[in-house]
Amino acid sequence: MEDKIHKLVPNGSCRDINIVVLGAKGVGKSATIVRFLTGRFIGDYDSQMEAIFSTNIPIDGKQYTINIMDTVAYVPGKELKEDPVFWADAFMLVFSLTDVSSFKAAQQMVDYIRRMREDDRMPILAAANKSDLVHLRTVSSADCEAWCLDQNCLSCEISASEDPMSVKTAFGMLCHRVRVINKKREKLSWTLQRPAVAAKLHLRQSLKNLAEKKLWRSRTFTF
Ligand SMILES: Nc1nc2c(ncn2[C@@H]2O[C@H](COP(=O)(O)OP(=O)(O)OP(=O)(O)O)[C@@H](O)[C@H]2O)c(=O)[nH]1
User: Fold this and answer.
1) What's the CA-to-centroid distance between 72 and ligand 1, angstroms?
2) Per the record's keyword annotation, is Hydrolase included, yes or no (predicted)?
């Protein structure tokens, strides 16, 4: 599996969505993935390595292949592996709403992802897991929502153990976001390829260069 992970290439197909699931230790990453893929809850899932699982689902009426990577637990202060970060079209950051340190770890991971990918629109969903343990909550919905809004992340509360629908909805929201962003990108690249638009952009750039040249000359001659 290590080999497979190292040979990961970014997704080129518009009908495949690569999702990397990240989170601190014991937050329920594997339980969430297994629930989504099989509909079942497995209480103790022993995973020490990354693994990729695929499934086909319809999104907005079209069939997609979703490749989901389960990762090893994030250790605060340690950098994430680069390959999964560049392979992903989207990230699901799982934390436990009973464990504030796992929420802080999720925040660090978002910073890291944004820095590495240099893309503010990279789809990220923060999933507050274990909502069945709401009486043990230490992360408030308000804090989570405010942070997600600030970071342009989607957010939701899920329970891998008790609420299969919440898990399905979380993956659905994330895939929908990927589709919307990909559609916008496709439209933009199509527009930029049109000769009239390319000529206009070229003209604009030439005028900008000319203006900068003039400015430089006027500054040089003032001395
Ligand atoms: N109450 C409750 N327990 C959960 C839920 N999801 C997972 N768990 C429990 O949390 C523990 C960790 O679940 P895992 O799915 O192994 O978590 P993980 O993040 O993959 O763990 P690591 O791979 O060790 O980092 C297990 O004992 C699960 O039974 C949930 O929604 N509610």
Assistant:
1) 13
2) yes
Q: How far is CA 156 from the centre of its chain?
A: 14
Q: Are 20 and 85 in contact (CB under 8 A)?
A: yes
Of the candidates 69, 61, 57, 93, the one whose C-alpha atom is nearest the C-alpha of residue 8 is 69
Helix (H) / strand (E) containing 113: helix 100-117
163 CB-contact burial (10 Å; exposed 0-12 / middle 13-18 / buried 19+): middle
pTM recorded for the entire structure: 0.82
Helix (H, G, I), strand (E, B) or coil at 92: strand
- Contact between 21 and 34 (Cβ < 8 Å): no
Dump pLDDT digits (tens) for 76-121. 777 788 888 999 999 999 999 999 999 999 999 999 999 999 888 8
- Is residue 177 in contact with ligand 1, taking CB distance under 6 Å? no
Distances (CA, A) of 127 to 26, 29, 148, 154, 222: 14, 10, 10, 8, 59
Strand, helix or coil for residue 117: helix
- CB-based contact 104:76 (threshold 8 Å): yes
Would you call 109 exposed, middle or buried from its count of C-beta atoms within 10 A (0-12, 13-18, 19+)? buried
